[in-house]
Amino acid sequence: MTILGQAAELVLSADAELIGIVGLSLRVSLTATLIASLFAIPLGAALAIWQFPFRQILIVISTSLMALPPVVVGLIIYLLLSRAGPLGHYGILFTPTAMIIAQSVLIFPIVLALTREAILPLNRDYKNLLDAWDISPIQRLKTLIWDARFAVVTGLLAGFGRALAEVGAVIIVGGNIAGFTRVMTTTIALETSKGNLQLALALGIVLLSIAILINALIHWIGSFGRKYQVTR
Amino acid sequence: MTGLKLTDVSYSVDGTQLLHHINFAQDNKGINAILGPNGAGKSLLLSLIHGVIRPDMGLVTWDGVATHKNKHTRGFVFQTPIVLRRSVRANLAYPLKIIGKNSSAAIDDMLELSHLTALADQPAASLSGGEAQRMAIARALITRPTVLLLDEPCSNLDPASTKLIEAMIRTFVADSGSVYISTHDLAQAKRLADVVLFIEAGQLLEHKPAEDFFATPATPQARAYLSGDL
Amino acid sequence: MIRIIFTLAMLIFASIVQAGERFITLASTTSTQNSGLYDYLLPIFTGETGIEVRVVAVGTGQAIKIARNGDADVLLVHHRPSEDAFVELGYGIERRDVMYNDFVIIGPQSDPAGVSKQTKARDGLAEIADNTALFISRGDESGTHKREKELWALSGIFPQSEWYREIGAGMGAALNMAASVDAYTLSDRGTWLSFGNKGNLALLLSGDDALFNPYGIILVNPALHPHAKTDMARRFSDWIVSDTAQKAIGAFTLHNMQLFCPNAHPMQNTDVICPSSKPRN
Ligand SMILES: Nc1ncnc2c1ncn2[C@@H]1O[C@H](COP(=O)(O)OP(=O)(O)OP(=O)(O)O)[C@@H](O)[C@H]1O
Ligand SMILES: [Mg+2]
To answer: What ipTM did this prediction achieve?
Structure first.
């Protein structure tokens, strides 16, 4: 039997365990994306709009954070959340919450950088116009984010894709507990370690399909947004 | 203390002084034309008196209040129209939202007035140059300001649109608004202007009633400009 | 847009309000997890007690660290010296024998080093070293890795040359690598039997006393970690050495092979158990 066939069978059989795993993957990564975006989008926009102290340093740091290996992020979060660590008394190590935290940290610099890139050219267009009105900083932020929303959402989806595909951090802080913190990537790692390469690859194909879906979405949103772009 | 007052206003970028010690006062009434050759500083002056940019020296006040504190009482139109990446209607709605109003009736009226009703739901970015300029003027008028600042509002417009804009300006002034307009169309300036501010190389050289300026320009620069030699 | 944000907010909420408190965290080893033993055993316990057992399966060394930090409530591992040290240092209490299986030496079917002709593990390893045949070591301080180092010490060889490869990974990764480069390795029997990518590999040596692989259960010391769910953990510990659980362990098979021999009470349960108290082939 071919691997593709097995992947298709996996999806079609839609057994409860697989659905649970895919569901948890999506839930953890979506939540992490949302949390990261909540902070990264306004901050990224602010970095594009205003000059303020430490701005350059912030940009350099956040760009460098993009190169941080997920395992390192996982390890840091692990040490923080461990009972022996400073945040230990919350007892959230080896829970989906810990995975969400780790992925939020991973995604944050990506969404931040892509938001900044999305807002920069728009701000060049808008700056004078907005300066001609009595407009609060919050209103300015909201206007620029809203009018760059297609590009911002693209960055958001890029972050989501990274979160979904990531294994190093979630396996450390989640513990890959069956039915509780087991997501697609950690299942793939586990099945590979069990020598079930076919199953692992089939799961990989399921993950790939989700990734393709996301990218199709990015593309579609992008082409939709271009309609409102200034071309002159 | 009513009207606009500039006290010793200078503006420079990267050490290059672009406007030099401008001083003048002007009541809130009528149409004031800002004239001068390319690069004289007309756009900069308009931006300064509205508070889009801040002078690095001197003071700009409207009715005694620093200019950046009461922008909502004025409408501003840039030389090259800047459109929000939204529909035409949403472009008109935006300044209303800033001042906390929301009137679709006002927007419909303004679309009608500026002949943009058919384009209301188009993305503003797809408008032609002239249409965008009409929209920018409509967007400046929609908050019912008392002062209108227009930077070459008719430079992109066909004769019919120019006529339309001039009519809108006249109506605005008739409703006791005042207007500052820069233009290179001397015929237009003669048609509209009550007062002329003539600037050249960042200096305010003449500030006087329009008839006087056109009949007897005092400076050689103004004479050269009017005769097309500057 | 607002609806999307709302939905996502609900998701956050849902993930913060985690399931009930009726669970314990068990730090254990990949060897037990990968064999499928827990998938078979734990539902029985949960069915009886309503207590969910969340298994974090890592190497023995890492599992002990997790327990020492208080990130688990109970520990089930397979390296007696480390287990005893864990209790002695006050990190754990109430260690009990649970079961055993054995380690086996795996290698290419062709067996170029002639390991299968030996009966003692240390002699098998010596042949590998003499023939400079490739050997994959897990190098991850797991129970298996620790045992492997002890076996090398027994053989009097300090493996260090090019043929000896420490990969710093789990049992499955080591077996995957051995399969792809025709190398020898030491595995626990459970992981070997359940491993799905055997390729040209075969079981070459087993049955030596030195390969005996006992598993023990230890509670995390509540005096050190007051948050530890000691009561529920103790119920689990009591349960796993009970007749029910011990019989269940003895009855667990993979590919018709018994994987673990219960030995909580070696004298009592002679009816269930393995043919002898020693590891079998
Ligand atoms: N940001 C800037 N940096 C440097 N120089 C500038 C800047 N803005 C304007 N200038 C210069 O200041 C001078 C006046 O510019 P301004 O736009 O006010 O001219 P203008 O009178 O409006 O000309 P036009 O009739 O062509 O619109 C020009 O020489 C211009 O190059
Ligand atoms: Mg200009």
So the answer is: 0.90
